[in-house]
Amino acid sequence: MISNATDPRFRSVLVLGGARSGKSAYAQAIAEAAGPDRLFLATAEAGDGEMAERIARHRADRGAGWQTLEEPLELVATLTAQASPARVVLVDCITLWLSNLLFAERDLEAAIAELAERLPALAGPVVFVSNEVGQGIAPATSLGREFRDWQGRANQALARACDAVICVEAGLPRQLKPAPAPRFTLG
Prior knowledge:
Elements: E1 12-17, H1 23-34, E2 38-42, H2 49-62, E3 67-70, H3 75-82, E4 88-92, H4 94-103, H5 108-118, E5 126-131, H6 142-161, E6 164-169, E7 172-177
Helix pairs in contact: 4-6, 5-6
C-alpha cells in the first residue's frame, strides 16, 4: 500500500500495471482499507461468454462488501453523480473504458481531458486501475498502435491529476507519485 494511503490529502490514486500484474487486487485493497462503503465502477462489457464468466468471477472475488455499477462509456458523468465523501469509488478499468470509447467512435482526447479536469472536484475518493501498455512490443496493426498511444496519453493525464500513482509489477507495488525528491550533498 502507499505509505500514507489513509492520509486525507490522498483523494485520488492511479494504480498501473500490466496484465495479471496484481494491480486490480492492490487497488481493491486500497479501497477496502478506506472503509465499508465502496462502489465498484466497472467499465467492462460482456461481449462474449468468456468475458461474462470473467466478470462474474471478479464480482464473486470482491464479495458482498461492494456495490457494483456498470458504466462502459459515461465514466465522468457517473463518477460525478456517485462520488461521495463517505464512499470510495474503484474504477476498473481505464483501459476498457478507452477501448469502449474507441469502438463507439467517441472523441478520446476530449473524454480523457474531461476526466482529468473533473477529478479534483469529485466529492469523494476514487481509485483508478489502468494498464501500462507501453512497455511491450509495438502492436502489429494501426488500430493497436492508435490504442496504445491513447492509453499512454490517458495514463499520463490521470497521473498528473491524481494525488498518488502506484505501479504494480509481479504483485509488488512501487510508488511513483508522490516521488521522493533527489537531494545532492555538495562538498
